[in-house]
TrEMBL record:
It comes from the Bacteria. It holds the Pfam family HATPase_c_2. GO terms for molecular function: protein serine/threonine kinase activity. This is Serine/threonine-protein kinase RsbW. Keywords: Kinase, Serine/threonine-protein kinase, Transferase. Gene3D superfamilies: Histidine kinase-like ATPase, C-terminal domain. The keyword Nucleus does not apply. It comes from Hymenobacter actinosclerus. Residues 8-129 form the Histidine kinase/HSP90-like ATPase domain.
Length: 155
């Protein structure tokens, strides 16, 4: 298992550092383009939440970001120094009464982009897991192209 960690002060402009961290990790660990977009959106959203809601923009508080790469998955962990939150009782942003609310979509988005999401430490720590395509998945996709036309892959 390979692991990389960074720690950033709670400043919104440090989201650029997180984006670079993800880009470098993609290149270093050969993370597939198919999941790269999901990783970029979910991890930057989680870090943004940690800066904004967890640490309340306090530049003296840090956000810890770590990455672990295994054969079949890549896992990002984001931890802030805030008070935490009740992640089990969030409003549904798709409910009619919440559609007009400007916030409340971040966790919803993260849960839909990552394959596994786990909260710990009263919501101060989130673990996002993304499953990596296996060799058989890639072979299946290669064989799903018939006569130059894309055929739906069986999944």
């Amino acid at each position: 298992m390979k692991q990389v960690k960074i720690q950033i002060p709670s400043l919104v402009e440090n989201i650029r550092v997180v984006e670079s961290f993800i880009d470098n990790s993609k290149d270093t660990f050969h993370i597939d383009d198919d999941i790269y977009g999901n990783i970029m959106v979910a991890v930057t959203e989680a870090v943004n939440n940690a800066i904004r809601h967890g640490n309340k923009f306090d530049k003296d508080k840090n956000v810890l970001l770590s990455l672990q790469v295994q054969d079949d998955r890549v896992t990002f962990e984001i931890e802030d120094e805030g008070a935490g939150f009740d992640y089990d009782n969030l409003l549904d942003p798709t409910a009619p009464e919440n559609i007009e609310n400007p916030g409340g979509r971040g966790i919803f988005l993260i849960r839909h982009l990552a394959d596994e999401v786990e909260f710990n430490k009263d919501g101060r720590h989130v673990q996002l897991t993304f499953l990596l395509p296996t060799a058989s998945d890639e072979d299946e996709e290669r064989h799903s192209t018939i006569n130059g036309a894309e055929a739906p892959a069986a999944r």
